[in-house]
Structure formats: structure tokens, C-alpha cells
Design goal:
Number of domains: 1
CATH superfamily: Rhodopsin 7-helix transmembrane proteins
Subcellular location: Membrane
Main location: membrane
Order of helices and strands: EHHEHHHEEHHHHH
Distance between the termini: 40 Å
Radius of gyration: 25 Å
Structural class: mainly alpha
Oligomer: single chain
GO molecular function: G protein-coupled receptor activity
Protein name: Chemosensory receptor c
Largest sheet: 2 strands, antiparallel
InterPro entries: GPCR-Ligand_Int, GPCR_Rhodpsn, GPCR_Rhodpsn_7TM
Number of strands: 4
Helix content: over 70%
Number of helices: 10
């Protein structure tokens, strides 16, 4: 991207708990890691999509759900890569501005030369975050849908065995996408980019503009959507994990007792004890996918709690440097959540593993 503009330094904003240099180093480090994780996620999810299509995903509701989850994860990783790039550009500007301010303080001269991007990187990052949240919410909803449906199948197999159908999955996924887009659309339409004067660099460039009502909309989404969805997902998947563990333990205990006694208790109407090896692998697969989500979602809950306690923990507040670093951490963990599922599928989905192995052998 072309660099331009001669600048005059202005007073820097309050640093809060994080100095400008520490803030810059933290952003570069976090976004370098995120860029690597994003590339891994792009590769793994492309593989997932190819394998699930080869497995005739549109003939089976569960496989189709996993395919759509991989598509959503691919979009998450793609947007995360763009956020990493914009954050890197922002950190470079911060580094340059810090150096200019330092030189001005050392020499007593208020004017110096510097180069800045013609489009404010913050705008690119904000648009990226809105897009990221759309697909990340789809990933969360699909994960909950799959986990809850499989839990119902395990608890009440005869009643809910065919709950995840192809038609129902397509309908639910369409609802998830429309809902996620509709939720973020007000924020997207209440901000944009315009040619404006930037006092930080004493020059004109394409800069973020924000509608006066945007903060109200953002706070409403935070209170009524982001926080409840994150907390609800954490609780729902935690309950599903507890149920899955109990079912697996009950099945293991039953097989152990039956083997020791050399006698199968066919008169017991306990569906949990009739768990097949295939069902056990599916439960382990969903257990790991849900566990990864819960681990990666925990920093988001801590950030929500901190923001609720400390009003200055926000953009424009005293602790905005720490807040922006925290946001980078959240995006990093969400990207990790969308990048690791291929390894779970490989070890706990026999059909996925065999299809991937066959394709790998044929390509040699």
C-alpha cells in the first residue's frame, strides 16, 4: 500500500496500564501468531470441506452440519487473516507516531516527517471485526445445534435418532446466517470511511466515521446478544459435555460388567448401555469440539466481565490500549477454535479418516 503524508505531531492519548511501546509489541506478537493460526485454519477447513463433500454430505444431516461448520470456520479464518494485516498496519503507524513524538520531545521541534497509510487501518480492522463476528456467531450456533441434537439422540435414541436431517440442517443454517447478518447490520451501516482530517498526523486521509448512535447500538448488542450468546453457549455446551461423559462412562461400565459376567442384560431398557462403538466415537468427537469451544470462549467471558466492572475499559477510555490487546486475544482464541476441528475429525471420525487417507494415497 502506498505511503504518504507529512505530519505534525500532536499530544498522545492517555496510555492507561499499557505503554505505547508495550502496546505496539503486544499487537505485533498477537497478530503474528493469529496470522499463522489463520493460515492453518484456512488449510484445515479447505481439507474438511473437500472430505465432507467426498463423503456425500448432502445425504446425511450430521455430515452436512459438519460441512457447514467447516465453511463458517473457513470464513472466520479468512477474515481473521485480514484483521491480522490491518492490526499490523495499525501497529506500524503507532510505532512511527511514537518515534515522531519521542524525537519531538528530545529535540524540542514540533514538526517532522513521517509516513502513514492513506486509509486508516482502524477502519479496516473494525469492518473485519463486524464480518468476523457474523461468521463466528454462525459457528457458535452450529456447534450448539450439533451438540444438543446429538445429546438428545443419546438420551432418547428412539425418539430423536433422526432429528438431524438434511432439510432441517439447511433450514436451521439459513436461519442462523440471516440472524447473524441481521444482528450486525445496524453496526455496519452506522460506520464507514470518508476523507477527513486526522489530527494525529496533521493531515487528511480516508478515516473512520461513526454515527452518534453507534455506541448505543453496540452497547445494546453487547448486553442483549454477545454476552447472552457467549454465556448461554458456555452453559449449554458444558451441560452437553457432562451428559456425554456420563453416557460414555455408563456404556463403559456396562460393557465391563457384561464382559466379566459373560452375560448381556437384554431385559434392561437402558438406551445408554446400548451405545455402539460408532456412537461412542461421535460422542467423543462432539465432546472435543465442544471442549475446544469452551476453552476458547472463556477469555471472552472474562473480557465481558471486566468491561461491565470498568467503564474505561473500552475504545476511547483510559484503558483502551489494554482493551484493544484483549480484543486481539479474543480474536486469536476464536480463530484457534475454528482451526483445530480437522484433527478431531481425523482421530474420532472413522469415515473422515479413511476418506482423507484414500485421497492422500491417490494424490501421490
Amino acid at each position: 500500500m502506498e505511503l504518504s503524508h507529512q505530519v505534525t505531531t500532536v499530544a498522545a492519548p492517555a496510555q492507561g496500564l499499557i505503554s505505547r511501546s508495550a502496546y505496539n509489541i503486544s499487537l505485533i506478537t498477537l497478530n503474528s501468531i493469529q496470522a499463522c493460526i489463520s493460515m492453518l485454519g484456512l488449510i484445515t477447513n479447505v481439507i474438511n470441506i473437500k472430505i465432507f463433500l467426498a463423503m456425500r454430505a448432502f445425504d446425511d444431516g450430521v455430515t452436512l452440519t459438519l460441512l457447514l461448520l467447516s465453511v463458517s470456520d473457513l470464513c472466520v479464518c479468512f477474515v481473521a487473516a485480514g484483521i491480522s494485516m490491518s492490526a499490523f498496519l495499525h501497529s506500524q503507524e503507532t510505532k512511527w507516531l511514537t518515534q515522531i513524538i519521542f524525537n519531538a520531545d528530545s529535540t524540542g521541534q514540533s514538526q517532522t516527517s513521517g509516513f502513514f497509510f492513506p486509509v486508516e487501518p482502524t477502519y479496516i480492522a473494525i469492518v473485519g471485526h463486524h464480518t468476523f463476528q457474523i461468521f463466528n456467531l454462525i459457528t457458535i450456533l452450529l456447534t450448539i445445534y450439533l451438540a444438543v441434537a446429538r445429546c438428545l439422540c443419546v438420551m432418547y435414541p428412539f425418539k430423536f435418532r433422526n432429528i438431524i436431517t438434511v432439510r432441517k440442517t439447511l433450514l436451521v443454517s439459513a436461519i442462523f446466517f440471516i440472524t447473524s447478518l441481521g444482528i450486525r447490520l445496524p453496526l455496519i451501516t452506522h460506520s464507514g470511511v470518508a476523507l477527513k482530517f486526522d489530527p494525529r498526523i496533521n493531515s487528511t486521509r480516508y478515516k473512520l466515521w461513526v454515527h452518534p448512535n453507534r455506541e448505543t447500538i453496540k452497547d445494546a448488542l453487547w448486553i442483549y446478544v454477545d454476552s447472552p450468546v457467549s454465556v448461554g453457549a458456555q452453559i449449554t455446551l458444558s451441560v452437553c459435555i457432562v451428559i456425554m461423559v456420563k453416557v460414555l462412562r455408563a456404556a463403559a461400565d456396562f460393557r465391563s460388567k457384561a464382559s466379566a459376567a459373560n452375560d448381556t442384560e437384554t431385559d434392561r431398557d437402558d438406551s445408554k448401555e446400548k451405545l455402539t462403538p460408532k456412537d461412542a466415537r461421535i460422542i467423543k468427537q462432539l465432546f472435543l469440539v465442544s471442549s475446544i469451544f469452551i476453552i476458547c470462549n472463556t477469555p471472552k467471558l472474562l473480557t465481558f466481565l471486566t468491561a461491565a466492572i470498568e467503564p474505561d475499559y473500552d475504545l476511547g477510555g483510559r484503558y483502551q490500549n489494554l482493551y484493544q490487546i484483549s480484543v486481539s486475544v479474543l480474536v486469536l482464541f476464536d480463530t484457534i477454535n475454528s482451526s483445530l476441528n480437522m484433527f478431531v475429525y481425523y482421530f474420532y471420525n472413522a469415515k473422515f479418516k479413511s476418506t482423507l487417507t484414500n485421497k492422500t494415497v491417490r494424490s501421490r
